[in-house]
Amino acid sequence: MSDPIVILTEEPLGADDRLNIERLVNGTDTPLLVLVPANTERHLLVDFLENLSMLDIAKAFRELSARHPDPAAERVHADETLAVSLAALEGLGAGVTGQVVEGGAVDGLVAKVRETGATQAVVITRPHAVSDTFHTDWANKAQDQLGVPVLHLYAGSGFIGDS
Questions:
Q1: pLDDT at 64 over 60
Q2: How far is CA 35 from CA 44, 71, 131, 142, in A?
């Protein structure tokens, strides 16, 4: 059996993501472990600038005036994201397992990579103009802490982030 690949995602994985992971697994018996953060820990100002940079002005101001998200609702969303993601990757490698991680998303990824002895990690996010531009995205943060490759993919596409 191959070393596991740990996958951290903030978005529910779909058909395009499955294809990307299938190419990475390449027919081997690699176990896959999907991690979904219980809380994405986004920052109000960064989100505001992010939405403006993507020309989503209405969303920028709507989220700026919104209250803090309910932790219970975030957990339900994370559980749903995990269930959809596990179903999308079903049948790949030596099996797919997953869990919702509490605390920091990157900390959860780093801990799980070290715990499992994984030699590869994948971070799947939607584009984040600010953090991607300044290399403060999850993939770059994880790469700084780990001695293993961290592949950064954008959800629902074949595009690779700059890690």
A1: no
A2: 24, 18, 20, 14
**Residues 92-123 as b or e (16 or more Cβ within 10 Å = b):** bbeebebebbeeebbebbbbbbeeeebbbbbb
Residue with tokens 């219980």: 38
Q: Is the pLDDT of residue 8 over 90?
A: yes
Instruction: Compute the distance between CA of residue 16 and CA of residue 132 in angstroms, rounded to an integer.
Output: 21
86 and 34 in contact (C-beta within 8 Å)?
Answer: yes
Report how far residue 159's alpha carbon sits from residue 153's, in angstroms, rounded to the nearest whole number. Answer: 6
For residue range 104-140, what is the model confidence (pLDDT) as tens digits? 899 999 999 999 999 899 999 887 655 555 455 788 8
Please give the pLDDT value at position 163: 44
**DSSP string computed for the chain:** -PPPEEEEESS---HHHHHHHHHHHTTS---EEEEEES-----HHHHHHHHHHTT-HHHHHHHHHSPPPPHHHHHHHHHHHHHHHHHHHTTSTT-EEEEEE-S-HHHHHHHHHHHHT-SEEEEEE---HHHHHTT-SHHHHHHHH-SS-EEEEETTSSPBP--
Distance in angstroms (rounded) separating the CA atoms of residues 36 and 12: 9
